[in-house]
Write a structure and sequence with these properties.
By secondary structure, the chain is an alpha/beta fold. It is 30% helix and 22% strand.
Length: 238
């Protein structure tokens, strides 16, 4: 069994106060292991994106088991350094700098002190992987929604981090492009020292995963995840 890359227990997160308070995560426990690609599947409002944001340190949980709370004890500066060094995040809504071109992909490399010219060369390589080499000189406003998402995926995989967290990463792409990108992530990004977590709604890319967690209850998600499998397994969460 591979070592656990991400461990969380007893996570709770709510928004609002008193009568307006909405529970997004209720007693969520999850382990993701190095070497696996784990899908988290469920309806809108079930807390999937909130979970990813909490696991990556973007959001602070309101409650967590003490043995699993280490990253949320870090200062904001240390937490930013942790994410830069350990976690790549692909957002559904792109988060691209509007005036940059290929530099969008080079940003995490530049932040890691890689020289500018080398970072741009690396960025071009990953844009080619997602099929955007010929669009590298265009700013986001001149790219389609699917192309912009391709840039965000290239940016995330360029950093070569321990964990790649993807929130509906291919929702704007057609079936062939979606399959190609996720297959590339599985074959070239996933390894025994890296884990990939993907939130998604449909089953078009199920055959590429090692494990699936299915979230059934909106607003009160519960997860119990076991070790990676050699073949996809489904965990029905109710």
């Amino acid at each position: 069994m591979n070592a656990a890359a991400i461990t969380a227990a007893g996570l709770e997160k709510w928004f609002g106060e008193v009568d307006a308070r909405t529970m997004s995560l209720r007693d969520v426990s999850l382990e993701a292991y190095f070497g696996e690609m784990l899908y988290i599947v469920g309806p809108s409002g079930s807390g999937k994106t909130t979970l990813l944001s909490v696991l990556s340190g973007i959001l602070q949980p309101d409650k967590v088991a003490s043995r699993c709370g280490e990253i949320w004890k870090l200062s904001s500066d240390r937490l930013a350094e942790f994410r830069l060094a350990r976690i790549g995040f692909v957002f559904y809504d792109y988060h691209l700098f509007p005036r940059l071109t290929a530099e969008n992909v080079a940003i995490p490399l530049i932040l890691k002190q890689i020289p500018w010219k080398k970072a741009i060369v690396e960025a071009q390589k990953y844009l080619e992987i997602v099929g955007l080499a010929k669009r590298a000189d265009l700013p986001p406003v001149k790219l389609s929604g699917g192309e912009q998402q391709g840039v965000t995926i290239a940016r995330a995989i360029a950093a070569q981090l321990d964990a790649l967290i993807m929130d509906e990463p291919t929702a704007s792409l057609d079936g062939d492009a979606e399959f190609a990108i996720v297959r590339f992530a599985k074959e070239h990004i996933r390894n025994d020292k890296r884990v990939i977590l993907i939130v998604r709604h449909d089953s078009r890319i199920d055959e590429l995963t090692t494990r699936i967690s299915i979230w059934r209850t909106a607003g009160s998600a519960r997860a119990r995840s076991g070790p990676a499998q050699t073949k996809p397994s489904r965990e029905n969460l109710r």
